[in-house]
Structures are given as structure tokens and as C-alpha cells.
């Protein structure tokens, strides 16, 4: 069974998905209320859908460059970070003790 050739690689699709997710996350950082955020999320989706069928690599590179620049320009200065995520307020708090054996100073000759 043969599949039609795709214009872009799986890595490209992952990059676009990551960019889309970062756009949504940044919009949610600026608009905490989900009911207001939903309208903005639909607008972001419409922008991505508008550029979905662009097949010219140079044009697509320009679109992605502008999107990254826009995202960097409007990045929230204090984004919402879940408490247990890296950078959150509870990250690595109360870690379980190490299960590795204790260092034996006498066996090492340092007593």
C-alpha cells in the first residue's frame, strides 16, 4: 500500500504543533478566563488553518519566522507555571531520600 508523498517531514509537523501549542499557552497566560480565551484560541486556529496549505518552503519559512517573532514579542512576562512543573513553586520540594548506599569513609581510608 503506497502513501502519497507528503510535502513536509514529520519534524516539520511537530514543530508547527509545538508553535501552535506555545501560541495557545501564551494566549492563556494573558487571558486567565477560559471563556474569553476560547475566542482567542479560535482566532489562532483560524490563522494556522489559513496557512495550512502553503507549500512554498521560502514563503513558509517567512510565515514561521514572523510567527516566532510575534510570539517572542508578546510573550507574557510572568507566565502561569503549574506548581509541580520545573520552575514552579513546589518543584523538587520534599524529594524522597536517595536509595543509593551511603559512602563508607572507613573503607575508603578517611576516618
Describe this structure in words.
The structure is a single chain. 50% of the residues lie in helices and 0% in strands. The protein is an all-alpha fold. It has a domain at 10-74. It starts with 9 loop residues before the first helix and ends in a 38-residue tail after the last helix.
Give me the secondary-structure topology.
Elements: H1 10-30, H2 34-50, H3 57-73
Summary tags:
single chain, 111 residues, mainly alpha, 3 helices
- In angstroms, what is the radius of gyration? 23 Å
The major beta sheet can be summarized as:
none
Unreliable spans: none
Helix count equals 3
Q: Strand tally, please?
A: 0
Give the CA-based shape. Answer: elongated
- Write the H/E string, N to C: HHH
> Quick check: average pLDDT?
87
**Oligomeric status:** single chain
Provide the helix percentage: 40-55%
Task: Measure the end-to-end span.
Answer: 71 Å
Domain Complex 1 LYR protein: 16-71
Region (Disordered): 76-111
Pfam families: Complex1_LYR
Family: Belongs to the complex I LYR family.
Short description:
The protein is an all-alpha fold and 111 residues long. The chain has helices at residues 10-30, 34-50, 57-73. The chain has a domain at 10-74.
Amino acid at each position: 500500500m503506497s502513501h502519497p508523498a507528503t510535502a513536509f517531514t514529520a519534524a516539520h509537523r511537530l514543530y508547527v504543533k509545538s508553535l501552535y501549542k506555545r501560541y495557545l499557552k501564551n494566549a492563556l497566560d494573558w487571558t486567565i478566563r477560559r471563556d474569553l480565551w476560547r475566542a482567542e484560541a479560535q482566532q489562532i486556529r483560524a490563522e494556522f488553518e489559513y496557512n495550512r496549505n502553503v507549500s512554498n518552503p521560502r514563503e513558509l519559512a517567512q510565515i514561521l519566522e514572523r510567527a516566532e517573532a510575534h510570539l517572542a514579542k508578546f510573550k507574557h512576562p510572568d507566565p502561569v507555571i503549574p506548581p509541580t512543573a520545573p520552575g514552579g513553586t513546589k518543584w523538587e520540594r520534599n524529594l524522597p531520600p536517595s536509595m543509593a548506599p551511603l559512602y563508607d569513609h572507613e573503607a575508603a581510608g578517611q576516618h
